[in-house]
Amino acid sequence: MNKAYIFFLLGFIFSSSVFAASSSVELKPVFIDLGNKASLQRGAQIFFNNCSGCHTLQYHRYSKFVDDLSISEAMVKSNLILTTQKGGEPTKLGSTITNSINHDSIKEAFGVVPPDLTLTARSRGPEWIYTFLTSFYEDNSRPMGVNNILYPNVNMPHVLWYKEGLKTYDENNQLILKVNGQLSQKEYEQEITDLVNFLTYVSEPAQLERYSIGLWVMIFLVFFAFITYLLKIEYWRDIK
After folding, report:
1. 87-114 b/e with 16+ CB inside 10 Å = b?
2. How many domains are contained in the chain?
3. Residue 46 sits in the same domain as residue 130
4. Which domain holds residue 7?
5. What is the pTM of this model?
6. Which of 85, 99, 154, 169 sits most deeply, having the most CB atoms within 10 A of its CB?
7. What digits encode the pLDDT tens for the residues 62-119?
C-alpha cells in the first residue's frame, strides 16, 4: 500500500478522534491562493511564531520551503528551525517538522496532545480551519478562559488573542469585541487567511507542481488546437 496513503489515512483518523464532532455552525468561506508565495511565506511565519510550540507538521520537511516558497536556506535555519536533535546538534534542513514538547506534560495541561496539522486541511477543509480560528470568545468557565463556537469546549487557548483581541456576547447574543487586539478585524482575518493558505499548501505540496504543469499543458493544448485547425483548413481546401 502506498505510504502517503497510509499517512493520510492515519492522519484523518487521528484528527477526527481529536477534534471530534463540530457543532452545526455554517463554515466561513476563505480564499485559497497557492500561487501567492507572499501569502504562503506570511502563513509560515505565523505558524512557526504561534503554533509550532504545540503543533507539528511531521509529514513535511523544512527543505520543501526553499524550493516551494522561495525561502532561503539561511532564513529557514535561523527563523523556522526552532529545535535541535537529541544530541544537541542543529536540526538538519531535510528533517521533518517536529517540536520538543513533553507529551505527558502537555496532556496533563490540556487534556490531550495537540494534533499534528500536516493533513488537517485535507481532512477538515480550509473553511473549517478558518472558521475555527475566527470563532473564539471569552468564557471564564473554561480552563483556558475561552470557548469556540465551531468546536464547543475545546481544550485549546486562543493563542492569537493578542492579535484579534477578545470577543464576548452582548445582550442580543451577538459576538462583539470586548478587548482590542493589535490588529483590526480585517487585518486579523487576512492573517488567518495566510495561515490557512499555508496549512493548505502543507497538506498537499504537490498541488503547486500540478498547477505549474497544468498551466503549460493548457498552453500546449491551445497551441495544438490552433495547429490542428490550420491543418483542417489545409486538408479540406483540396477536397471539393
Report:
1. eeeebebeeebebebeeeebeeebeebb
2. 2
3. yes
4. 3-204
5. 0.78
6. 154
7. 999 999 999 999 999 999 998 888 888 889 999 999 998 888 888 888 888 999 999 9
